[in-house]
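Reposting from the mailing list since nobody answered there.

I have sequence plus structure tokens for a pair of proteins and want to know whether others read the tokens the same way I do. The first protein:
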Amino acid sequence: MAHNLHNTLKEFDSGTGKGKFYSLPELGKALNVKIDRLPVSIRVVLESVLRNYDEKKISEEHIKQLANWKPTATRVDEIPFVVSRVVLQDFTGVPLLADIAAMRGVAKRSGKNPKAIEPLVPVDLVVDHSVQIDYYRQSDALDLNMKLEFQRNNERYQFMKWGMQAFDTFKVVPPGVGIVHQVNLEYLARGVHKKTENGETIYYPDTLVGTDSHTTMINGIGVVGWGVGGIEAEAGMLGQPVYFLTPDVVGVELKGKLREGVTATDLVLTITEMLRKEKVVGKFVEFFGEGTASLTLPDRATIGNMAPEYGATMGFFPVDEKTIGYFKGTGRTDAEISALENYLKAQQLFGIPKAGQIDYTKVVTLDLATVAPSLAGPKRPQDRIEITHVKSTFADLMSKPVNENGFAKKAADLDAEYKTADGVKLKNGDILIAAITSCTNTSNPSVLLAAGLLAKKAVEAGLTVQPHIKTSLAPGSRIVTEYLTKTGLLPYLSKLGFELAAYGCTTCIGNAGDLTPELNEAITKNDVVAAAVLSGNRNFEARIHPNIRANFLASPPLVVAYAIAGTITRDLMTEPVGKGKGGKDIYLGDIWPTSEEVNALLKFALDADAFRTNYAHLTQKGDLWSKIEGEEGQVYDWPKSTYIAEPPFFGEQFSMTPSDVIPEIKGARALGVFGDSVTTDHISPAGSIKEDSPAGKWLKANGVQKADFNSYGSRRGNHDVMMRGTFANVRIKNLMIPAKADGTRVEGGLTIHQPSGEQLPIYDAAMKYIADDTPTMIFAGEEYGTGSSRDWAAKGTQLLGVKAVVARSFERIHRSNLVGMGVLPLQFKGTDSVQSLGITGEETYDIEGLGEDIKPQQELTLVIHGKDGNTQRVPVLLRIDTPIEVDYYKHGGILPFVLRSLLAA
């Protein structure tokens, strides 16, 4: 290490003895820079850059550039950010573990020590994405769902057990404990870390990246961290800095306080809508002001959680007395808490900044008193609707065209009634799924207690939920059940059908389980626009359930209220929620809990002893997890499995040196031409696997029955399944497929193979192109790749033979993941687009300007050869944004780059 830079290593009292830290105030003096004017989030990143200075990956120039951050500047410098730890959820964690296991295989074949491949920072994998809501509305639903989960995922869990014994720094939080982000808040986050270096104890902040885009929930307790693809997380685990462009920092000043009856969910939906309009994509957002200081920690975490929905890299809240109170209430040790407080005070990082104290790129102000009860939907989390307008908005959308977010139905269809084979009456707008789920809210006691109180009042008033509505309660951790039980509220939720069904990320990620066959048949036969209400953070098309087209995000108490109403077409502000005892009309105001009622119960939610007891026993002798037996040894031997397979990203003939010349792209064909807002849900396989899909056919050919298909997410460790499901979403619209007679677009993962003109599943066409040695490209509009940080959206794209994606704009994580898999992201310039250039997918394409030497964000030329013989030459921007990404691309991706680096060491 090349320290001490400017003698910034100083001493402080940790509360239990003397410790050392790399002092930002001292750095400011040495460089004559006003460090205290920098946003707090930038200062935390600067500390990591300073502490990890080694004159190789991190230079003195990197430190000076970041220390001299200015509110407004052209952002061209990249920051090499070394994180303290990495957090994984199981859907992205399993393929990441498979990649590292494959690297060990390469090391062994190369005659190197397999232990050279080892996570260099602590890695925690929380198994929370694998449980599905198969059983519901019965008292043993949790037990039955977990048994099914273990039965379906036995091979995956055996693989995780192998990883735990093979890697020294890899730990697993088993199924049934909670959602990754809530476990991270309550248990994994340390606030401040310490390590011994040259005989001295060095303290430094808790920082991380995670393989779930909602990793930003941890920003609520002052931890710098965000979601990355598994590809980037892998590099971070193996000692590579996470590289990103120096960000703008938008300050959000919160003023005033929330009105009576307004929840944290309403606040976060308002902030999401507001910041989407401010275009904060790729920026840090930092909250300050008196309104921010007044928010509880769970409310801050709820706002941080939704950063991907408002587009920011982070939604950061500095540490203050309330953070310290949360650490105490969740059972952290006195030594940890005093070290955190004393460290941050020594660094002059403690407290919520007041107006005027920090230089932000821009300041946005929100008066909390203006926030109103809201839902968001029916297709995107940023489309907020005040509760008074939900009924009218849905009525308008019924007849609006699809390109205006509508459902393209006749207005008269709103009142049409259909009957299922088992006698259920069904109308457009009827709610068929009502779920209290997802990390956004289930970490927040105020809204969960509010849901329980509303359920109590509803039951006492005689209200019920219709039996065909799929209701479920999936708390973020076992602590939630504990305080709902202590307050006597759990039985009332159960009586309305909200039985405890799982501890995990369920409905929000498409693990809602299926509807009844009768409901599915009636929906598809009559093209019914059915609805779901969930306390989640994502509601993209086909995400919640393939047959439910209108999905609304709402606070937990509103989920319960709408479940009782049974339809989204009732105005809950003016019409009764339902009829109670004696046929009496019951209104929302009759059952909505007051803030005093909620606050009176909050003391049950922060019980330090309960937290310590809960997390002291993640697993117990004789439970389902302890019975799983994993393989032994340092190198995995890849037993035959349809869940886990050796990834093909390295190959048997892996070379220690990459090619000198970047291959040209000539004579390429379009695999797909898409419009705006194509999400990673559209690209990456997610949810259930259809029997007649390429993936379904492959599973059946390999002896797997339909009942055992499980989900795409659970099979992310097998590339044969995942590549067949890439671009196979039932709602994706490939503009190469001719429109229907009524002008609407055909949905599903189809394309036109050229030059044959044959209509095929995208996977089948891709295999034909690969067999013919024909490169392929994807064309798209704005915001390509929004949504969860799904590494398989990039991995699947690469395995289908796609060499470049040309779009109007890219989502941050997906763009970097494409580079990480050796796929070129290219951006149209100016007003150029698929439409303005007349691209139909019948042309052939070349990319000019590639060679030995490419530079970040240089201009390349897209050459379009039309069927009529005409040629267009179009400038496009190379969205390889940083010098390190150039290196990744030259190596064929980040995984070969890292592997070569480790084996050469």
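The second protein, same order (residues first, tokens after):
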Amino acid sequence: MSGPLAGLRVVEVGSEITGPYCTKLLADLGADVCKVESISGDPIRRWGALLPGDVGHSGLFEYLNAGKRGATVELAATADLAALHELVAGADLLVENLSPGSQLRWDWGLDPDNLARLNPRLTVVRISSFGQHGPSRDRETTPLTLQAASGWVNERDPGRPPVQAGARIPEYIAGSYAAMGALTGLRISAAGVGRPVEVDVSVFEALLSTLPYPMLLAERLVKMGLPGNAKGAPMLGIVRASDGWVGINCLTGQHWLDVCAMVGLPEFGEHQIAIMIGGPEREEFFEKASPWLQSMTVADLVELSQALRIPAAPVTDGESILSCPQYAERGFFIDTRNDPAARRFVRPGAPFRLSKTPAAVPRPAPPLGEAVAAWDAETESVSPRRHGAFSALPPSDVTQPFAGLKVFDLSTFWAGAYLTCYLGAYGADVVKVESIQRPDGHRYSGSLLREGDDWYERGPLWQGTNLNKRDLTLDLSSETGRELALRMAAEADVVVENFSPRVVEQFGLDYDSLVKVNADVIMVRMPGFGLEGPWRDYVGWALNIEQLSGMSSTTGYVDGPPCNLQGPADPIAGVHATVALLAALEHRARTGEGQLIEVAQIEVGAAVAAEPVIEYSLTGRVRAREGNRHRTYVQGVYPTATDDEWVAVSVRNDADWAALAEAVAQPELLSDIRFATEEARLGNHEAFDEVLTAWTRTRTSAEVADELSMRGVPAEQILRADRMYDVEQLDARSFYQELEHPITGPHRFPGWPFHIAPGPKRHHRTVSPTLGQHNDEVLAEVGLSVQDIASLRDRQIIGERLLNS
């Protein structure tokens, strides 16, 4: 057994994706995970393409559960329950995704009172749709309706109903947040709180947490007299080339000018905003640009765009991703198709690389029917527990589990900043570095909102991502600036960056340089494409990650183009990097050994969009996009009586169908042969859609959702940005926290999608800093005098206002 979490004992009572993906990440990092199932087994065993031979489960099950041991519990067997309780009594962590009202939790003795008797030092992670409390706690949900409730179902193909994200990506996201919460809870448990630490994870809040702060943006638009739900499409977005789809993504005004020059239409350079928001110029531009784009291959368009430093990437699917040279040269996908001793298919590898504690090749997933077995003595000998707790990092204050951790934050935009925002929220001292010559590019996001000379302090995306930090400006193009940065890094526990690899290497702030002055430093590097490989120096941002990793190809209608998810790739990478970092900190606490953590964002994207490549490797076919449909039951997104309001509805089984027939006051539907069974409804999906649409058009989205939900049918309104502050469930769980910004005033910022008890009482500690706000105090802490600091300011190595603003 190896890995930074070697010795961590985890019991998983989970099914489908959220719980198993949480524990998969922990297993990748060396944890000993025991997966507990009932005799019917995890339903994901039967989802999608099955492994060949008599293995008896799907490729997706194997991906999610490789490396775990198994235990099957018969509810009526007293011996099984006693063995399960013994297993829990010896564990450090229990992860379950039972519904809050599940009887199984009580039948198996996993309720809070019994767990406290069995193991008071246990950390318990409970994952549920809306969390363990609040008015929506017991609402029936499906992946579609949860996406709808959290603002993930969006217009991605103009003129058609909003559509969900494909490949069950949101469920992986919730699982990754659960892993982050689990490792935080373990630190708190080590403080000896005398009872189990509970981490209450809300999938709903996890999805909201990955959105690019639409509620803050809507608030700002309204204050400026603009529609709060205004949207702009990324440009160019996904376009057709001669041999496939390609994503060309303008992040800055300069990118747009370069794209216009590249396609031979420089006259459109002044019309970026009008084209983004769908003005008449948009149609004219694409009418003229499309012939040129479609005369080029995907590879040529990517190569030409990248030569001009325009973010571009191919849109891959389950087949083409395997021939992508960057993935291939990095050996990311695990291919066992030619190994007679293995279960033959292709799956993603671990979504992070740790230089001193690499992930091991996973063992096969457990078969169903294994008896509950006691823990091996091996885990105790690998990592002896400190005072009965796994974590070697007990906090002195459980409300600040990362207090004392020094973080030097060289990140830009969102992915790295999300990691450091989390650490700072719970006590870490995070020093954010930018410069007055070239500030963090995230300050420029939302160019429509530029107002006043201090516009760079007002951006909602900047503010939301950089809470809980101190801000230091250093001109890293100067020798003095680089020397000061190295001095800061020498005293840090953690250094974080997510530039393209050449940037920090040119500054002499790469890992090899840092360990010369700080031998036990942990450095987290989060390049878009990875530190090595033929595309390592490509430029890219979230949309490129979605396009290259297979996320976009699974999203959209079967007869339409691939669609961008528009945002979540950054925080998804940040959460995975946080999981790896928290594990590496445990390893350092035990061994004194720091290390380099590489989190290539394209690999995280592929890890949470795993199913297409798995299915292609097993079937030789690329599954078509599914729009809003489901493989085993009928569902969709339907118009309502109010323009631009939609509602998502799922009918999972005959009970749901009977309840829906009652709600629409059409009892005759129950005798309609077209809808008599689940298979019949799937075969007559369009007719089902017509029946439901005729009813939903006569009601508001709230009326439809309430009428069906009260009958136990999963149904949710499509949440719009301008209504995200008006959700009773979020108020009940204190998801938003109000902080006062010195320039833009009070704002309600989204928090983290879990509650830890005992643990932090607030989501955030401080509002985002202004540019260079903490120059004097940070530089004084590393020994500079008042005169030294004044000299740096005179030479514009530091400063508090953007140059040439």
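Reply #1 (J.P.):
I read it the same way you do. The chain is about 35% helix and 15% strand.
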